[in-house]
Design a protein that fits this description.
alpha/beta; Rossmann fold; 3 domains; seven-stranded mixed sheet; five-stranded parallel sheet; 11 helices
Length: about 375
Amino acid sequence: MNRYDYIIVGCGLYGAVIAERLRAKDKSVLIIEKRRHIGGNCYSYEYKDTNITVHKYGTHIFHTGNSKVWEYVSRFTEFNRYQHRVLTTYKNKVYAMPMNLGTINAFYGLNLKPKEVAGFIAQKRGAIRYPKNLEEKAIGLIGEELYEAFIKGYTTKQWDCDPKELPPGIITRLPVRTSYFDSYYDDYYQGLPLHGYTLIFKNMLKGIPIELETDFFIDRKYWENRCKYIIYTGPIDRYFDYVLGKLNWRSVRFEYEDVPLDDYQGTSVMNYADLEIPFTRIHEPKHLHREKKHKPNTTVIIREFPCLDNQEPSYPVNSIVDQALLKKYQSLAKKEKRAFFGGRLAEYKYYDMHHTIEAALAKFEKIVKQR
């Protein structure tokens, strides 16, 4: 029976980056993954002989302002020049998001100039000095009309509750651009891997053994006895057998539809702000790779429905109760002598991909110094 320096629980981006870095330092590493594929929520695949690259867990756009992160991930793939532009449908009209000068002018039927936007929005804001919930916070930032149109319905569907029941801290700001700039991200580096995200993981993990469809908790002692240290990237409360209670997550499910058209909606992601429409987004992934030739008269659309699924945690609820519980689990984690915790699930934190890589590289440096 082989014994390893490190066993990494989870083959998502965080675990893969640390595995690659440890292997580069001649450490022996084994990855065990509960799912049947590598890549975690970044996993992508080619859809039904169409040459359409689908992201299994929702559209993932790589973006970063950190040149070191870009240089690191670019070692494992080439990127196209895609820049993300999100549109929102509200009452059968389409608007650009995040809110910009075009959104404001289209919504109100105006022709404001950039210098006039701030004053206009200031007149719309609610006079709520100490907001008690998300709704009051949003109205205090952008006004009731824009909140009702673009935030209320979408948020209600996303979190399955009235925004009045959500803490104001869920949103720190709602940006309103004073120009017509409509790229969703401001980061200098943006794009999609030319051949999908899964190839990044295959290149990153060359020479590293991986056990798929393997649940760490089914035979935990066995895995712990096969290594010096564990790097755990799963839910932190699960590691401790929920001894203090469960952290709350929201999830999403996806419904696929093959459509005999070259183009269904004209963009990669369309948000739906109306409450009576049950899904929050429709993804059309062929728009992510304009450089590819796709099968004619064929596209796939993916409707996204928020839901509660403890088997597929996606978005931390981060209520006051959850934050208090998280601190208790973090205290337990600090007492673990052979385990390191990190990543979206273990930290109960929403991470973009570049933040995940930053955190993994920082954790690797910490591990190397300590060991």
